[in-house]
Amino acid sequence: MKILVINGPNLNMLGIREPGIYGRSTYDDLCALIRQKAGALGVDVALFQSNSEGDIVTRIQQALGREDAIVINPAAYTHTSIAILDALKAVALPAAEVHISDIGKREAFRQVSYAGLACEAHFIGLGFDGYVKAVEYLARKYGG
Ligand code: DQA
After folding, report:
1. Ligand 1 closest atom vs CA 8
2. Which one of 11, 49, 67, 105 counts the least CB within 10 Å of its CB?
3. Is ligand 1 within 6 A of the CB of residue 75?
4. For the segment 54-104, what is each residue's pLDDT rounded down to a tens digit?
5. Closest among 78, 134, 137, 130 to 106, alpha carbons compared
6. Across the chain, what does the average pLDDT equal?
């Protein structure tokens, strides 16, 4: 099974960015953790990070015929991007939404998740473990 893990804007700044909210571990640490857990599950992962909405839309489209499922943390685009929602609906691959922080307990503008409307599972406020749980969930449900 192949899973695409997408991270949106400013998640490349993990470790530097607001450590009180997102922790001190880096994006590279996150990638290593996901690769290690996916490897243990026998899942092939592709890791993609972009600060650009259009590049995220394009990568979701490219998943068609290439990957079997998507884990996505669209970061700030969660709360604004109908284009990312539409791309997820267009490819119609099983998708899981992840947020490192508990967006439900933060500012009012973080209370809407457009991308989440196209996701069948949500792992929110679990830190990096949310990605691991999302990969496990998709592997269990859709893996060979
Ligand atoms: C985030 C939450 C978003 O509201 C924020 O814009 C991010 C990260 C999270 O993982 O907690 O960039 O998606």
Report:
1. 12
2. 105
3. yes
4. 999 999 999 999 999 999 999 999 999 999 999 999 999 999 999 999 999
5. 78
6. 98
Half-sphere exposure at residue 105, Cβ-oriented, CA atoms within 13 angstroms:
8
CA of 75 to the centre of ligand 1 (A): 4
Instruction: Look at the chain and count its residues.
Output: 144
Is 0.90 topped by the overall pTM?
yes
Place of tokens 């949310």: 130
Q: Ligand 1 centre and the CA of 102: distance in Å?
A: 9
Q: Domains (ranges, CATH) in the chain? A: 2-142 (3.40.50.9100)
CA 139 – CA 134 distance, rounded (Å): 9
